[in-house]
Amino acid sequence: MSARIIDGKQVAAAIRQELQQKIAALRSETGIQPGLAVVLVGTDPASQSYVSAKEKACAEIGIYSSDNRLPAETSEEELLALIDKLNRDPKIHGILVQLPLPRQISESKIINAIAPEKDVDGFHPVSVGKMVLGEETYLPCTPHGVLQLLQRCEVNLSGAEVVVVGRSNIVGKPLANLLIQKAPYGNATVTVCHTRTRGLRNHTLRADIIIAAAGCPNTITAGMVKPGAVVIDVGVNRVEDPQAKRGYRLTGDVDFAAVSEKASLITPVPGGVGPMTITMLLFNTVQAAQKKASHAR
Ligand code: L34
Q1: In terms of CATH architecture, what is 33-116?
Q2: What is the dotted CATH code of the domain comprising 141-274?
Q3: What order of strands is seen across the sheet that includes strand 161-165?
Q4: Fewest Cβ atoms closer than 10 Å to its Cβ: which of 12, 27, 266, 287?
């Protein structure tokens, strides 16, 4: 059996089209154009490419974006001053500080400084707290994108055995939390595995849905997958490849070729979760602008 491949680009394009219409309506009804501040410190090539993709996506659907690229030596104080300025800028509804940050800057200090109403990444403790409590808030983009993919592919989560591999603050932890919520996108039975998990395979073999977010190629091999399982690959790893044009190729956390012979549904890398991450950032930015418009009335 060969799995159906989930086309993340196509799902992302459909959502972006919905957003484009919402933005046009918001602009004509209220004069408000959603605005996103994009902040990148340093020159990490992967971060540069993600940030450029986010800015391009904004332009395509009518979100204003301000580009803030700072040198790698930027101090914590300088970055805090920029955040403060963006917090007070009325044209900006959302602030994205691309992670990771250079070593001299505390990520948690920076995230804490973002006004919660502009926290379109959903990383601020206030946003995380609301998410865990099931209150309305901005959901973190990658987990939200995964939920959207599952929903739009009509994967039934209620009572499903889900194994999340990875416990990062930006993917594993929030995703596990969302999946157990008493909500249409939740109601799953969730196991979170990580680097200290014993017998990873015993866990993944039970799973109806495996979500790989370990950041390591070949974390999930065919022998770890129950026939017919749904496999979502969140990993984006650059692997050196002299044959490739750019000197590297992208691969996820899943042995795609072998696992796709066993799964019923699988996401590719690239073209799976990545485009959804960017799309949910756009979604949150539009939501932030809509909220502001409704307060202004
Ligand atoms: N603050 N930092 C903050 N928010 C985020 O949501 C992120 N993340 C992660 C890293 N740091 C962050 C992203 O934006 C990962 N991430 C991200 C975004 C987009 C893509 C991958 C990761 C993506 O578009 N991937 C493409 C391939 C891109 C390429 O060719 O390099 C894909 O199809 O998977």
Answers
A1: 3-Layer(aba) Sandwich (3.40)
A2: 3.40.50.720
A3: 4-5, 265-266, 230-233, 209-212, 161-165, 189-193
A4: 27
Instruction: For the chain, give every domain's residue range.
Output: 33-116, 141-274
Ligand 1 atom at minimum distance from 238 CA: 31
Q: Is the CB of 236 under 6 A from ligand 1?
A: yes
Which residue of the set 121, 208, 233, 253 is catalytic?
121
Ligand 1 pocket test, candidate residues 236, 266, 267, most atoms within 8 A of CB:
236
pLDDT in tens, 141-200: 999 999 999 999 999 999 999 999 999 999 999 999 999 999 999 999 999 999 999 999
Whether 121 is catalytic is yes
**Residues 63, 44, 175, 111: is their CA dihedral positive or negative?**
negative
Alpha carbon of 51 to ligand 1 centroid (Å) = 8
- Answer whether 33-116 and 141-274 agree in fold: yes
Distance 277 CA to ligand 1 centre (A): 6
> How many residues are recorded in the chain?
297
Distance 141 CA to ligand 1 centre (A): 10
How many CB atoms neighbour CB 133 within 10 A?
10
**278 CB within 6 A, ligand 1:** yes
- SS3 of 141-185: HHHHHHHHHHHHCCCCCCCCEEEEECCCCCCHHHHHHHHCCCCCC
DSSP for 93-136, please give it. Answer: -EEEEPSPPPTTS-HHHHHHHS-GGG-TT--SHHHHHHHHHT-S
